Amino acid sequence: MRARLAAVTAGFVVAACTSVFFQPHRYQVGTPDNLGLTYQGVTFKTRDGLELYGWFLPAKGPALGTVLQLHGNAENISTHFASLAWMPARGFNVFIFDYRGYGASEGEPTLAGAQIDIDAAMQALLARNDIDKDRIVMYGQSLGGALAAYYVAHSPRRDQLRALVLESAFSGYVDIVREKMADHWFTWPFQWLPQFTVDDRFSPLPTMAKISPLPLLVLHGDQDAVVPVQDGRRLYEAALEPKQLWIVPGAGHIQTMRNPAERDRLVAYLVEVLDRRAQ
Predict the structure, then answer these.
(1) Which residue among 83, 142, 171, 203 is the active-site one?
(2) Residue 83 falls in the annotated catalytic set
(3) What pLDDT score was predicted for residue 60?
(4) Does the bond joining 213 to the residue before it have cis omega, within 30 degrees of 0?
């Protein structure tokens, strides 16, 4: 009886884990002007009729390129934009938006819906007259990295991107739930359950080889306690050239760019990639 109860409880735990991929907040914590940044509010429609909301942060001075930022699973753009808020000062436009169900965006979040949302954001970005449409980089963080990898591997708009950056991304939805279950003695025996309860159709690992020939940069902190560093290594190993893997010593989850030296390195990488593709 005790074993049966444990199994049932574990099943509920796994079902809950599926919904944990999306933890949206509707309220706005702050805006870019709190950090002294100029920004524009942007609304745009998805092909299934939802209105999404985002922020466009223009580069200070002539733009070197434009970064489309896909944020992680929790809260909304008001708590995620700060991780790349340094980029406008370094010459990059940044466009960050909320998936359906997050912040001011309509709808309810789903993995399939998020793919539609990314495509709509790409369309909104390409419709702008104040950017160089040949110098767009997609930058996905955590869940946003998993979403970005799948999108780039399957979207016809991949040809309009010049590089893909994945930071603190997990290799698969089933895999990350298993890893979390392995961390606790109670759920450890039930690591087989996610195979049957978690939607793995949009996992990035099986599609990584399709990202090539788009340049790929995988970033991961070696102290990431949320997504283990081996996930970043798996994604890198499954991808084809051109690709780079940067394991950042001492960095935690979505913290690889906290060090100014790493920011310098990233800017140099992006400029090289963008200039090479422009030739």
Answers:
(1) 142
(2) no
(3) 96
(4) yes
